[in-house]
Design brief:
Strand order of the largest sheet: 10-9-8-11-13-12
Order of helices and strands: HEEEHEEEEEHEHEEHEEHHH
Largest sheet: 6 strands, mixed
Helix content: 25-40%
Oligomer: single chain
Number of strands: 13
Structural class: alpha/beta
Distance between the termini: 64 Å
Amino acid sequence: MLASDLGWNQTFQEHFENYLDRGLEAGRVLTENREVYRLWSGRGERTAELAGRLRYLAEGPEDLPAVGDWVAFEGFDEDRAIIHGLLPRRSRLLRRAAGRRSDVQVVAANVDTVWVVSSLNRDLSERRLERYLEVVAEGRCRPAIVLSKADLVGHPEAHRERLAARFDGVPIHVVSSLRGQGLTDLEGDLEAGQTVALLGSSGVGKSTLINHFSEVQQAVREIRQQDDRGRHTTTGRSLLPSRLGGWMLDTPGMRELGLVAGQLGSAGTFEDIDALARQCRFRDCRHDGEPGCAVAAAVEHGDLDEARLASLDKLQREEEFQRLREAGKGALAEKQKWLAHRIKAAKADKKSRLE
């Protein structure tokens, strides 16, 4: 298999030239589990770990290799390698770590298209789609909405038309893996050299979609009869070959997709509200009872869905909270650096006086 079939291009080649004099090889991360990686290279797959220097210089998890990344590695035998460098990413999907931590996680790297998968039977939520599309746009990837399990609802096209009016310009596909409906419309995203990542909640049918296109079969489970919900099967991220020449990046269903600072506004999802806000009397209008608020007037006259305004407000507050946390984290790191420098200088001064 040629490296170009896996997404290698001239830009990566130019960055990799910095490692040529060290005798390193290039490989792409297929899987990652607690800093143990499975790489693909021109000589096949192998297991790799991080060089100590690469781990030491990383300021956070986002500076370490993720699934989809291209890396420079040193091979020791047919199945063992050490990763010494991470090539610059041309795209990446970020999210805030689940729970109370503020760390940023790289969900996927060097992705061309993202299929945001939502099942029509129970999972469909415009609010969730808004959040996913913001993450996709900020990561410099092409978005597509895939409405799965069309065989379980009546009039699935009505849902597509409603979302098409809401998310103008975003391709929307109605599919049923069981019936084979709409799947050929997705094939253009999987040409040789292309990488597609699948995002969505647990049980929406991501693994079933991958099984239709991929040469490697994923485990799937039937929906639960008691509540018509799909069941979670994928437990880790992995890059898999498709039978069409491209690659598919499978991800586990996410309990939450926390925004990181700077993501909101990338997709133009709330462009209509932004346009209204520019007509408000006050520049810093919060759309919460201020006089001359064009946004509030649009809600009152039925021209703007109040739920969408509430969704935007929630995302803005979440992003601002995350920005403040990251700023505080950065300030603490600078303070620690300053203290370390002062301690080092004091030790050097004491040593010179003793001499």
